[in-house]
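Problem: given the chain below (722 residues), write out its structure.
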Amino acid sequence: MLAKAGRQPRKPRFARAPRPPAERDRLVQSRAEAEAAITEARKSHERLREAVDLLPQGIVILDPEGRYVLWNKQYSEIYSKTADLFAEGARLEDTLRVGVARGDYPEAAGHEDEWIAERLQKLYEPGKRHEQTLSDGRVILIEERRTDDGGVVGLRVDITELKQREASFRLLFDGNPVPMIVCALDDERILGVNDSAIAHYGYSRADFEKLKIRSLQAFDSEPPWTTDRSSEEQAARTWKHVKADGALIDLAIYSRELTYDERPAVLLALMDITERKRAEARLAFMAQHDGLTGLPNRNRLRQTMDEMLQHSRRGSEKVAVLMLGLDNFKAVNDTLGHAVGDKLLRGVAKRLRSTLREEDALARLNSDEFAIAQSGLTRPEDAVGLAKRLLEAIADPYLLDGHSVVIGASIGIAMAPGDGDESEKLLKSADMALSRAKLDARGTFAFFEAALDARAQSRRKIEVELRDAIQNDVLRPYYQPLVDLSSGRITGFEALVRWPHAERGMVSPAEFIPVAEETGLINPLGGLMLRRACLDAATWPDDVRVAVNLSPLQFRSGNLLSIVTDALKHSGLPPRRLELEITETLLLEKSAQVLATLHALRALGVRISMDDFGTGYSSLSYLRSFPFDKIKIDQSFVRDLGANREAQAIIRSIVSLGKGLGVIITAEGVETEAELSCLRTEGCDEGQGFLFSKARPNAEIISLLTAQRGIDAADEDAALVA
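Solution.
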């Protein structure tokens, strides 16, 4: 319809009225804000996806219908075989069914529907974490939580390496021969034990799991992992546990914290060291006790004495040390054997212990010596009473293996603090007193005196200086002539050791030879003199011999034959010109080794002489045991021979014996013409003594031999003229 002329056009019947400008602006603004919110939401979603992609765990978010809303990259990698099915809005149940059909979940094989139903139940009714094994062997830990809108947030962690470590731990734990226990850190309850622990302790597995670690500990109130000690200190500590049968065992415990069945726990490795501790105790006992008698040894005695002395310093009481030595114990060993000797020592130890108080110390120091330390004494007479009781206790006969054995003893006594205020000093003082008691009269006791210490110090000084003299070749052989009594000619020389001392002059052999024998220096000293004598004698005329004394101790070294052989070889001296002198003391030992060495030396060509004949025991029997080349009559039979008819008869018998055996008889210590005349009358072959000459250095000996050679030449010329 057209509008009439002059009229305004009529509005359409249904036309909308135009919006006011302000409303239109608000609408445009709202639309822009909505679009901006949507854009921002998309950005937040992308940021959320980027954030969850950075997480090391797999993350999945499902809506209340179980449809995928969001998942991260790690989740896709864990379920890589079904990742192609992941899409927003896709149902988890569908992906599970496809995965089961593909064989991605080996645990579902044979009961697929049941497995899927169980899995979905865990999804919609989440509770504890659970594990899932995939077809490639990986193990996934699943933890899921419901959201406020009914959706699900799921966490996936690949725990394959953890499970492998757990399997390794289980293998090492269950099959380990060392008993192992796992305890909870919070309540100390035992969570697990291996088979070795069950076998070692005697508890069943069920019994173990009812106990706490303190239930096994015998004395300790704290568990073994709560100490502040270092691992080394912890391992060095000894714990005592109680087994099911009540037996105590010693343990070294090693601990390490871990997680066991999702609980903080500690693993205990229990090393049974009971036998080791017993062995250590035995070794410690042996280190401080005598193996034969079980008595303390010197070290243990010194410790006890130190305690006694420390206590005595706080008061006026004295400490007595008694050194007890058995008399002639060696004779018991030699005649009845070492088995009887050992039983005798045990019997002596038992009697000594029964005679003493409980607080008195008793120790065995060496083969036949014991020491007693007693405190609380007020005067020396108290020690005398104790010494007498000990001697009486020992004196009664011992019945051993059918033999009635009687043994005596001597005792040396030292008192603290007068004779020393230290244990070692007291023992030395008592030892010196014992030596005096044995020297004066066996079977008694003697107190230490300062003079004994002075003599001991002097002896020690001689030992030190003698050792130095041997090392620096200070000692010299001097030679005393051996004279043929029928012709007056020198047939040889005896080498006698001399010690020219820088301060003391010439030291007497009577001072240093006993020290050399006691300290073992006689071996290097004797070897030195033998070598020097052979070298000197090699420069003498061929018919002049040299005689060298041998100590019995040189035979015990076992290398005497080689020493003699080396000396002869080095000097070039013919063996027939060397004469070795031994005493009857050597043959007292009745040693097969000694006789074998003597025969070997004689087979070498060396002459063997018996020195000091008549002063020992059973001399005639020794002449049967070895074919000596010479017998030397001791000077005690030669002294005042001219006025002593008994001595003349003895000399006559010895000379007659020598002629019958075909050996040369030499008389020592000839000092007067009367003695020489008697010896010639009795037919003695050789003489030696100051009447002919004192011992002289080698330079003077050469002069003597030169003079004798001149006399021999003059006699030959006179014979030619005649």
